[in-house]
Amino acid sequence: MTVSYPYSLAYFADILRISSVIWDVQRNDQFSGTGDGRVWQAELATPLWIGTVSLIKMENDAAKQIAAMIRKLHGAQEAMFIYDPLSKYPQFDPDGSIIGTRVVTIGAVAADLDGLSLRNLPPGYRLTVGDKMQIAYSANPTRYAFLEVSENVVADGQGTTPVFGVFPHVSAGIAANLQVTLVKPACRCVVVPGSHNPGTAAKMHTEGAGFKVIQKK
Q1: Which residue spans within the chain are E strands per DSSP?
Q2: Topology of domain 86-185, CATH
Q3: Are the C-beta atoms of 86 and 128 separated by less than 8 Å?
Q4: Looking at residue 181, what is its pLDDT?
Q5: Res 31: pLDDT
Q6: What are the tens digits of pLDDT across the range 5-21?
Q7: CATH architecture observed for domain 1-83+186-217
């Protein structure tokens, strides 16, 4: 069986032994201003999610396996799915048991692409600022949005939310009825070239391993 890309969560992200992570965005803006303090900002491209992952001290064999899997990504040529380890589940549902196997979908997208609504949630289900979601859209190739909830919202008795704000803006091509992943929502990323540190081995353990990723839609 050959290696398939992008790496699935079960193949890669779920086996990582993470000690710490910095999860943030890389903005792509241009600024200009005047001497009286006025500032203008132009967003040249959509912000991209970035992550700095540090791994725990581990057995040499485990570290070798992770390093080999990262090398097999051929730098930034191939992608993997990875999640924010602090946001594997909505804060209201810390183990995903409330939402269970429900297939959540988009109800509507705001006209200004600044928000969306969801449906088929459990009645009264809450989404909290900072929760994450993953949406697959388009085809040939399939693209993936990784969005963050920007305001608290509650589903009504039919499991539908009002439109709520998300970050970044909803991508063109995302529309009603597309499926939304709230349990282990993943970001499609590549390893930042030159960022992989396989760690330092001493006797039976390796420490200091880590890498950086950047979103690839």
Answers
A1: 18-33, 39-55, 58-59, 80-82, 104-109, 115-119, 126-127, 132-137, 143-149, 153-154, 164-167, 179-181, 187-191, 200-202, 205-207, 210-215
A2: Elongation Factor Tu (Ef-tu); domain 3 (2.40.30)
A3: no
A4: 98
A5: 66
A6: 999 999 999 999 999 98
A7: 2-Layer Sandwich (3.30)
∠ Cα 99 103 108 (to 5°): 105
Taken in order 24, 182, 76, 113, the sign of the CA dihedral is negative
The pLDDT score that the predictor gives to residue 33 is 66
Q: What angle do CA 216, 50, 105 make, to 5 degrees?
A: 60
Q: Which amino acid is at 99?
A: I
Q: Where are the domains of the chain?
A: 1-83+186-217, 86-185
What does the alpha-carbon distance between residue 154 and residue 6 come to, in Å, rounded to a whole number?
Answer: 33
pTM of the full structure? 0.90
The tokens of 131 are what? 């929760």
Contact residues for 74 (Cβ-Cβ < 8 A; gap 6+)? none
The whole-number mean pLDDT for each consecutive block of 10 residues of the chain, a chain of 217 residues, reads 92 93 83 68 78 96 96 96 94 97 97 97 98 95 96 98 97 96 97 96 95 95
